[in-house]
Amino acid sequence: MAFDIDMIKKVYSEIPSRVNKARELTGKPLTLAEKILYSHLWDGIPGKPFTRGKDYVDFAPDRIACQDATAQMALLQFMQAGKTEVAVPTTVHCDHLIQAKNGAISDLQNALNTSNEVFNFLESVSDKYGIGFWKPGAGIIHQVVLENYAFPGGMMIGTDSHTVNAGGLGMVAIGVGGADAVDVMAGMAWELKFPKLIGVKLTGKLSGWTAPKDVILKVAEILTVKGGTGAIVEYFGDGAANLSCTGKGTICNMGAEIGATTSTFGYDASMERYLRATDRADIADAANEVKEYLTGDDEVYANPEQYFDQVIEIDLDTLMPHLNGPFTPDLATEVGSMNEKATENDWPLKVEWGLIGSCTNSSYEDLSRASSIAQQAIDKKLKTKADFGINPGSEKVRYTTERDGILGIFENLDAKIFTNACGPCIGQWARYEDPKNAPKNSIIHSFNRNFAKRADGNPNTHAFVASPEMVAAIAIAGRLDFNPITDKLINEDGEEVMLDEPTGWELPPKGFEVKDDGYLAPQEDGSGVEIKVSEDSDRLQLLEPFTPIGTDVSKAKLLIKAFGKCTTDHISMAGPWLRYRGHLDNISNNCLIGAVNAYNKQTNFVKNQLDGEYGAVPATARAYKAAGIPSVVVGDHNYGEGSSREHAAMEPRHLGVVAVIVKSFARIHETNLKKQGMLGLTFANEADYDLIQEDDNFNFVDLADFTPDVPLTIEVTHADGSKDTIKVNHTYNAAQIEWYRKGSALNKIKEDNAA
């Protein structure tokens, strides 16, 4: 039986009337995304339709999911909200704090030894406030959610950007910062700008070496890393119906890499099969009763150009396997074209590691198809040229694949089976003793992101993204330019052999099985649970409310002008820094250390205007803060791309940064800045970015008149005494301006609860 089945049945009992009213309101057929959005409005159907990309709207999500790295800060904030339990079903999943090194058993024990303080904290907070807790080793949050909590037509938010994975089961599932999650945990509405809609029509059927992963790799090439910003991507067509549910999840998962608010598919037979296979026949039965409300209207899919802001069409019959990368997930290369491209760009053709798993591709189907390639290597006497690493997505997947001999096939090729956790995908990989000085090399993986230093901390690692079966083939061949469709390999007997097309199972033929899935239910009454945080802990720190920045901001000094791509990994690195995610002051020592200084093209080396010396970004920020001087960060396009981690906003705020001024923002990061009571601003004239000089001071001229839809004015004073006056835009509404005035959204929540 499903978790929270009564809540799900309530959603299904209400969705027909709400969708029908939304059709009347809009006067048109509705996309699936619109049906879910309008049926989850906080205040019910409004008097007029919302304007896509403009209107801020209050929603009522059905549930929340948090992973252990972001849950720490989210729960530390929730503890200040004055509530006795969470208002909606919420879960915490321990998947980020487990480092991949020696193998599953050893690595899990090491994580328990080194992070037990954090795990105990998360478990106790979960127990106290009615939150479901998934133990270390239970699995990767998004795979566990897909197996247990996702349901067609639902709305979920999660403190991880790849929450969007649940779109594979027909949800609108959106990654948010912890402060957004706290709002919903505290029983408040969740605010989102009503998204634009991108339709992707899929025709045909995948075959041969092409996999669901290749669909999103192609979409990433078309839309780029910012092409989906502010939009929901909705997939439809006969090609969509031909995909498995977990394949749909893979596609939705990597929608985060194009900046999409989320991605989703309409309810269909593959979702019903998956629900029944994962012991949720009760959801499938309930969904079948309202299935016409769990997909887009026929008229929408027949004439998509009339109902979507943008439409893309992809023919699965002709889609080729892709490798995307290095250093960005939208740089696509068709298999077979890599040799020329790699040679031209000086990418190492030798592949040192093939990594299969992550929240994107760690399902039973993924592992079974990849194992079919691994078995061929054994049968055809091929020696693998690269190392193998496997991360099963959940204990249910791990146990079932072990039972069915799938993991044994990889082990016969000397693969390391890592813990059911994120591992190398998020930088939790002990590959090198000294990553910064490690050699130039190439790896291939089935993960979602491949930014520099993302997997192993080595800036010289060229990471390429592909499907699990393609990862297996290229790891066996040991070359990036290997094309299994056409190329032969030499086996141990000196014979030429070819790899056959991958085969596998959508779902386990003998069903899923697990002995201990790792779930701990909370106490019904958690009032007696005591949460302890040691004052001398270097891992956990109780939060102090931020002081309002105010309206008189003058002589703020430039902290850093970031050059080029500045993701949340650049602003607040993961990897070894994950250990400090619950301690704001300690983790602030990684603030912007990966951002490239526009003036010297170095990282973590900026000018301190107080003494003229160059030093680390956090140390410089602390010097300004100690002197009572505010600071400003300037950035380029799509600033804050990547993770949902609110630490990338909280750290600058903690260190005295009052404003981040950029050419454009990634959605989640802009919201996170607002939540923490900061100014997230964009240049009205992008060319003004070039006016900013290394010794600049910033005077905010009209901040006292901070008003929705009205640009702000900044006087930029240069070292020679000259000045430039620039205009900056913002997207703050009245409620968000109130967050700024109170010092943070959390301060406002506490004030409202005390009233």
Task: Describe the structure concisely.
This protein has 755 residues and is α/β, with parallel strands linked by helices. The protein has 24 helices and 30 strands.
What descriptive keywords fit this protein?
Aconitase, domain 3, 6-stranded mixed β-sheet, Aconitase, domain 4, single chain, 7-stranded mixed β-barrel, alpha/beta
Number of strands: 30
CATH architecture of the largest domain: 2-Layer Sandwich
Contiguous helical run count: 24
The helix content is 25-40%
The overall number of domains is 3
Description:
Helix content is 31%, strand content 17%. It is of the alpha/beta class and 755 residues long. It has three domains: 311 residues, 2-Layer Sandwich (Aconitase, domain 3); 166 residues, Aconitase, domain 3 (2-Layer Sandwich), CATH 3.30.499; 199 residues, Aconitase, domain 4 (Alpha-Beta Barrel). A seven-stranded mixed barrel has the order 22-25-26-27-30-29-28. Helix 3 runs parallel beside helix 4 and helix 14 packs across helix 16. The longest helix has 26 residues. The two termini are 41 Å apart. Its cofactor is [4Fe-4S] cluster. Keywords: Iron, Iron-sulfur, Lyase, Metal-binding, Transit peptide, Tricarboxylic acid cycle.
Topology:
Layout: H1 5-26, H2 32-38, E1 56-59, E2 63-67, H3 68-78, E3 90-93, H4 104-129, E4 132-134, H5 141-148, E5 155-158, E6 172-175, H6 178-185, E7 190-193, E8 196-203, H7 212-223, E9 231-236, H8 238-241, H9 245-253, E10 262-265, H10 269-277, H11 281-289, H12 298-302, E11 310-315, E12 322-324, E13 332-334, H13 338-345, E14 351-356, H14 364-379, E15 387-390, H15 395-403, H16 406-412, E16 416-417, E17 441-445, E18 461-465, H17 468-477, E19 489-490, E20 496-497, E21 519-520, E22 556-561, H18 568-571, H19 584-587, E23 606-607, E24 614-615, H20 617-626, E25 631-635, H21 647-654, E26 657-662, H22 667-675, E27 679-683, E28 697-700, E29 712-717, E30 723-729, H23 734-742, H24 745-754
Parallel strand pairs: 2-3, 2-5, 3-4, 5-6, 8-9, 8-11, 9-10, 14-15, 14-17, 15-16, 17-18, 22-25, 25-26, 26-27
Antiparallel strand pairs: 1-7, 4-21, 12-13, 19-20, 22-28, 23-24, 27-30, 28-29, 29-30
